[in-house]
Write a structure and sequence with these properties.
Elements: H1 6-17, H2 56-60, H3 62-65, H4 74-83, E1 93-98, E2 101-107, H5 108-114, E3 121-122, E4 137-139, H6 146-164, E5 172-175, E6 185-188, E7 198-210, E8 213-221, E9 232-233, E10 236-239, H7 246-258, H8 262-265, E11 269-280, E12 283-295, E13 309-316, H9 317-326, H10 332-344, H11 355-361
Parallel strand pairs: 1-4, 7-12
Antiparallel strand pairs: 1-2, 3-4, 5-6, 7-8, 7-10, 8-9, 8-13, 11-12
Helix pairs in contact: 4-10
Length: 368
């Protein structure tokens, strides 16, 4: 087995993940190999909204342009870093406390926009010399029920509008201290990262066994999507809104996104979770993604029904792995779920340099 300097690899991972950032400073691109393909636009920003103009032909050509050996996990570490930016900026956020428990985190400057809503929020009284607030932000004690809190905070989001909370979807996410705990209230999905609440989602890898080889169904997002248009995605993925279980939400998304009937989607297997923590300006994403595998029959072809997916392609898993290592074609958090799939299905092995570090990094966020 080739020698592997684990301490050097771990140092490189942590050093790059702590690159300084301010909201007015552009992000540095990840140090992954970008294939020499013409007319392809790449972006490392998880909040990018520009269209990615690569084609399926570009995706299918990646194996011929990838010169890194499969045992080189550097490209995978780059994708983990992309989802875990800004840890050095945590001091700029104060806890958002509800019923004595931390429900999220709010940036000092974003908190300034909330100060005029005296009947909804209460604020820390002291400021430090560098302009950072200590203490925490809480809800007004008059807001005692989840329903009253949901309505009051919802009205605040409407007043703030798209300028401060872009992408409002009129979809509510439950606000809790951790998964399965009592719900404090429900919050507009687009506002979740601005209050630093934990958001949960379901991500499903749909695969096919054919001729002794595993294939993954990969979707290409519609160019009309407000987030990550034109990028590659799982067969099925979606956030978990208020009032629905993980499995029920997954089956609903299977029908809407890929035309998979419940008779098939009900056999999807829960296989764990990945988590990440990403700070970008006023946004503090604390996401946990529940992972599912679904083995689909050879001959089944997914059909998108909600207009969010442009097309699907069945691709050998080994080839998908090379696309992840070598490009930025996939929606960032999808990389983590597919890397997890690679571990569980034997496409990565302990002989690969950095195996355990990469495995641990898939839960870089608060997985609770």
């Amino acid at each position: 087995m080739a020698s592997c300097n684990l301490s050097s690899l771990a140092h490189r991972f942590h050093f790059i993940s702590k690159t300084p950032f301010s909201p007015s400073t552009p992000r540095t691109k990840t140090l992954t190999l970008i294939p020499r393909i013409s007319n392809v636009h790449h972006s490392t920003s998880p909040t990018a909204i520009q269209t990615h103009s690569f084609t399926w032909d570009d995706v299918l050509q990646i194996p011929q342009t990838d010169e890194n050996p499969p045992s080189d996990l550097g490209g995978y570490f780059g994708k983990v870093r992309l989802c875990n930016r800004g840890s050095e900026m945590k001091s700029q956020f104060v806890p958002f406390v509800v019923e004595g428990q931390i429900a999220g985190y709010v940036h000092n400057r974003f908190m300034d926009h909330l100060r005029k809503f005296h009947d909804v929020f209460m604020f820390p009284q002291n400021n430090t010399n560098d302009g950072h607030s200590d203490g925490s932000i809480t809800l007004h004690p008059s807001l005692r029920s989840p329903e009253n809190r949901t309505a009051a905070v919802g009205d605040v989001i409407k007043v703030l509008g798209e300028e401060l909370v872009p992408g409002i979807r009129n979809e509510l996410y439950p606000v809790t201290s951790s998964f399965g705990m009592p719900i404090f209230f429900s919050l507009e999905r687009a506002a979740a990262p601005y209050f630093g609440i934990k958001a949960y989602g379901v991500h499903m890898n749909g695969y096919v066994n054919k001729g002794g080889q595993k294939f993954l169904w990969v979707g290409k997002r519609s160019n009309m999507k407000p987030t990550f248009p034109g990028m590659l995605d799982h067969l099925v993925a979606g956030g978990i809104p208020h009032g629905i279980s993980c499995k029920e939400n997954l089956m609903k998304e299977c029908e809407e996104e890929a035309g998979i009937p419940r008779a098939i989607s009900s056999t999807a297997v829960p296989v764990g979770a990945v988590s990440y923590m990403d700070i970008n300006g006023y946004s503090y994403k604390r996401d946990v993604l529940f992972c599912y595998d679904l083995e689909l029959p050879d001959g089944f072809t997914p059909i998108n029904k909600d207009g969010e997916v442009e097309s699907f392609k069945l691709i050998p898993v080994a080839q998908v792995a090379k696309v992840i290592r070598s490009t930025e074609f996939f929606k960032p958090n999808c990389n983590l779920v597919i890397i997890d799939f690679l571990f569980r299905h034997g496409f990565l092995s302990p002989e690969d340099c950095g195996y355990l570090q990469l495995l641990q990094s898939l839960k870089s966020g608060d997985c609770s």
